[in-house]
Amino acid sequence: MKIIAHRGDSANFPENTPASWDGAYAAGAFAIETDIRLSRDGVCVCAHDPDLNRLFGRPEPVSELTLAELMELGNAQGGRIAPASEALAYARDGKAVLLDIKDETPEALAQLWQAIADAVSGPQRRLVFAGCHTLDAVRFFAVQGEVEILGFIPTPDDAVGFWVAGAKTIRLWERDASRERVAELRGLGADVWVTVGGRGTDFEVGGETSAANLTKLAKFGAGGVLVNDVKFAVETMEGLQ
After folding, report:
1. What percent of the chain has pLDDT over 70?
2. What's a Pfam family in this record (predicted)?
3. Does pTM surpass 0.90?
């Protein structure tokens, strides 16, 4: 079962930063996951929240600041805003990168595709997973035909439609990842990744988990898990071998 670092190795480093990405790969992650939004001047940046309050104590939306203004931000924990090109550089170096696309307007999708094309050469683009929340976004990247597509499906009932549209990896929340549902999706030919924790589980925070829960998902046939603590997940999986 692949280990995908949720916002990087965010249990041990500031989320969505090069430190968290370096830490994730060093700990054995198959891929990093990072969130993509647009700056005011149309540059793709790595930021989970729509605004800057939680990390930087500022009320503005990410989309209201330019890249230069965003890159001036920092906090006491080492948090910062990185341009998407810094995350995509890992794919250029042969490592898998999952992009959780928060803005799926036509402009944002076009800007992200250009960022991918600029940062990653053709053969390496298969290491980029475009994480799509809408069918329009899935179809956009299916037309490009050069990246992998993951469906951040709105509900479990949307899984088949996303797969048919071109999302060959389907992301489930742990609360929805029953043995039967995982088997159904694998029967279509889809790879199934699961974000652990969150509502309906033992852990309120997405990405948090236990050895027992990881073991259960592995037995269910999940192909990957999105976790906050990469070292813990890797060691748990090694213990099952």
Report:
1. 100
2. GDPD
3. yes
